[in-house]
Design goal:
five-stranded parallel sheet; globular; binds 2'-deoxycytidine-5'-monophosphate; 11 helices; alpha/beta; 259 residues; 10 strands
Amino acid sequence: MFNIKIITTSSIFHFFCLSLWKDLFIMEKKLITIAIDGFSSSGKSTMAKVLAKNIGYAYIDTGAMYRAVTLYCLNNNLIDGDTVNTETLEKVMPSIEVSFSVDPATGASLTMLNGENVEHEIRDMRVSNKVSIVAAIPFVRRALVNLQQKMGESKGIVMDGRDIGTVVFPKAEMKVYVDAPAETRAQRRFDELRAKGDTSTTYEEVLENVKHRDHLDQTREESPLRKAEDAISLDNSKMTRDEQNQWLLDLYHSIVSQQ
Ligand code: DC
């Protein structure tokens, strides 16, 4: 009786370890890379963030990285009109540190520039108006793409931007290309600015900025915004936030189940 009990206990323990190992193995095997690209203010960051939270993946907003470098340029007088002092920027680029940390109070992701929290500043129109020029500079893109590839090398990541499915992770298992008319996107960005207390920027200014950035993002020579051939398109202009989040989650489950 005593022996049987020992065998039973050890068998249960064995079985438990085996199934745990199997679960871990399956989880490991199913970690994927998720690339979400699209136009500015298409709502991709919001969707990407919710998806990452739901599935326990890391989330990286690559637009925030280009914005942080732009803020550095503005703060250091490296931008004059639409001209960037690329000679100086290239020299200091290795010392510009862009990273992310988590707000302990809210759990929100914070963009850090040389160790300083710049999450709010990088969303200002001052930065929005210049970021496309900085994002078009080849050595800036090379440095940030490098960093993004390192951040995602262990998979289990949701990354959003313009070139994630085409350049950063061309082999990503899940690629989504989010699109919506410029007017819809401008209205979203305008509402966000108002909610943050910006009462001076008009809707027309935001629309002009959105259209201008669309043009620059699509026509730049280095990694222009384009849909990867194997990306799935989503026009979310008539979807609620919940519908978008569900659509993305369903897509994730269907892709993972086929891995
Ligand atoms: O997503 P966003 O609006 O915060 O992006 C800011 C700018 O950065 C946008 O004009 C395009 C650029 N960008 C880019 O060129 N490549 C990325 N992967 C992400 C953003």
